[in-house]
Amino acid sequence: MVRFWALAIVTLTMLSIAAHVIAEEAPPSGAAPAAEEPPIGRVYHVDEYTQAAILRYPGLSAAEADIDAAQARLREARLSPFMQFQGQARFFVAPGARGTATFSPDPQIPWSNSWGPGGEVSIEGAIPIYTFGKYRAGKKAASAGITAAEFERDRTLTRVVFDVRRAYFGTQLSLDLQAMISEGKNKLRKAVDKLDARLKADDPRVKQTDFWRLVSALSEIESRESEALRLEASARAALEILSGLKPAIVPECALEAVQSEVIELADHVDRALANRPEVHQLEAAHAAKDANLTVKRAGYLPDILLALRASFARTPGITDIQNPFIIDRGNFAGAFAGLVARWKLDFGGTHARVKAAKAEIESLKAKTAEAEQGIEIEVTALFEHLQDAKRRLASWTRSEKETRKWFVSAGQGYEIGTTTAMELVDAIEAYFSARSKRLMATAEYNLAIAGLEKATNMPLVSQKGWRPANCEE
């Protein structure tokens, strides 16, 4: 937007240079050159561009995928501790073995006997009964991940809405500035042509230096108009890329200030601290850090588990000894269930991990306080920018209205000889200055409101309230 402001200021300077010759050679009236035909297509308002951008913005799709991933992690945290089982199946060949529980004719490893197939199937695992808070903390951390992902989606949403509005009002401002430039350029070109004709006719009242000054001014203003066209094209391209609506056509109506809810600065700050996605993300991070501390502290204590094990093996070539007190490695079946206390005895490491978890929480508290200060500073700056734009808008609107009267009156007076050239020049410069500054203040006012909405994550204007009040399709 700074480039727009510079563009208008340079344009006013060029107009003031040209006004002296225009006053000598032609009245300030004159038809502006026909504008280029806009591309054929539907006209969309800012709220329509915004809705289209929301539906297709890749960052929002990524945020939705992140939420799905966080929800999956929560399901894992709920179910995975109860599914800590593993199964094993073995298939093998082994030498045959004969005998009873008290006698066998074969050696301990009967290599020379016939070899045959065998197999074993087993399953074992444990179900947590009490973990001293580890299970609940895991679910709490996973839930905090979902919250953080959801507010990241909200943060992305506020950013894309602001980007669309910035591109939209940038397009409108560039068009209004182009209209102002075109009006001055037409008068300037007409004056150049007439001055050139008089120089060729050897008119003694015309100076060559005036012609050179005028041509230089015309070249400068044409280059600035080219820059305005480029900036307009960039803003339109941004609208098309964000919204997918092509061609991006904005209503052909003057840039107007939107009507917003009027509240005090303290209320804006309170809204921001209560609704900013970043604040809620920090709260979610705090919940996750608390859960992490719980897990680290619980490392001093064991996990109480219900352990289960079952196995079955069968090898046809080995005699099945039916005695529970004899280990038959080829043929057996067994099951086990009981309570187990599983304890990690790394107390030194656990102490260090607890200390680190506490430090992370303190660091997060400090970062949260820092973020709140930053939010308050940001909202205050935007609010004061809005108030500044509002005051300037009122002042330059009044000035534009009065200098327009002065401009018309001076032009008419010069035609009948009651107004001097210098008075006409002053009127032209005052009118175009007030007009451009009113446009700038209007755009800044609208963008300040859009910025406050983004900073507070609360609407100040209804969706259709962003449309100009007196603008038809």
Describe this structure in words.
The chain is α+β, with helices and mostly antiparallel strands. The chain has one domain (2-96, 115-466): Up-down Bundle (Outer membrane efflux proteins (OEP)). It has 9 helices and 4 strands, in the order αααββααααββαα. It has helices spanning 2-25, 46-56, 58-79, 134-200, 208-243, 265-275, 277-298, 347-416, 421-456; strands at residues 84-95, 115-130, 303-314, 332-342. A 4-stranded antiparallel β-sheet has the order 1-2-3-4, with no helix packed on it. α2 crosses α5. The model is unreliable at 1-39 (pLDDT under 50).
Please give a handful of descriptors for the protein shown.
473 residues; elongated; single chain; Outer membrane efflux proteins (OEP); alpha+beta; disordered N terminus
Itemize the secondary structure elements and their pairings.
Elements lengths: L1 H24 L20 H11 L1 H22 L4 E12 L19 E16 L3 H67 L7 H36 L21 H11 L1 H22 L4 E12 L17 E11 L4 H70 L4 H36 L17
Antiparallel strand pairs: 1-2, 2-3, 3-4
Helix pairs in contact: 1-4, 1-5, 1-9, 2-4, 2-5, 3-4, 4-5, 4-7, 4-9, 6-8, 7-8, 8-9
